[in-house]
Amino acid sequence: MNKLKITVSGSSGRMGKMLIDAINASDDCELAGQLDIGIDIHAELQNADYLIDFTRPEGTMAHLAVCKELGVKMVIGTTGFSDAEKALITEASKDIAIMMAPNMSVGVNVTLKLLEMAAKAMSSGYDIEIIEAHHRHKVDAPSGTALKMGEVIASAMGRDLKDCAVYAREGVTGERAPSSIGFATIRGGDIVGDHTVLFAGTGERIEITHKSSSRETYAQGSLRAVRYLATQKTGLFDMFDVLGLKGK
Known about the structure:
Layout: E1 4-9, H1 14-25, E2 29-35, H2 41-45, E3 50-53, H3 57-70, E4 73-76, H4 83-92, E5 97-100, H5 106-121, E6 127-134, H6 144-156, H7 161-164, E7 165-166, E8 181-187, E9 193-200, E10 205-212, H8 216-229, E11 235-237, H9 239-243
Parallel strand pairs: 1-2, 1-3, 3-4, 4-5, 5-11, 6-8, 7-8
Antiparallel strand pairs: 6-9, 9-10
Helix pairs in contact: 1-8, 3-4, 5-6
């Protein structure tokens, strides 16, 4: 059996090390290279068919250019892209297959589907708040997963998150706008990732929560994404595609 040859970016980081361990432990994957600061991108991608990238936007964009040049497919877990950077990723997907998602966890993506269903049923009469907690080292806020949750909910309700998101409250804010989606961010300790979406109505509330206790779930989800890309030549995909949740 031909193994899936994968290069890992950010290989010295916590997520990178977890990915390398998962690749080495799998039966169908093989570590083809390791990318980190100061390492030649071309050299580490030369023998790879796939790159798993959990870094920062500037790093991912540099890797994207080389992957496009060499025909290496990408699994992108990086968050915090600008609209212009997202457009470049979309353009590159015309030449290589790319799976991009803010969270590779199977559980998180099932949660996103549940949120879509809940939002459609509670499109009026419920106030929506998204609360996320991560470790002290996380550099962006809100988390990419929290933003994706907001996007899924807003889309299901026929709204644009850019028009209804509230990221901070302080002082005399006035009454809550009925159509707003609020975000609250917690940073501390070694929290891997907790996300709760609150649908608060009159006389009742629903809370949908996902908690990660290990990055292992992200690593296994990433390998699942690689296996999906093995069946695709070009195109931009997300974890709903990988898990067969589109259109359900």
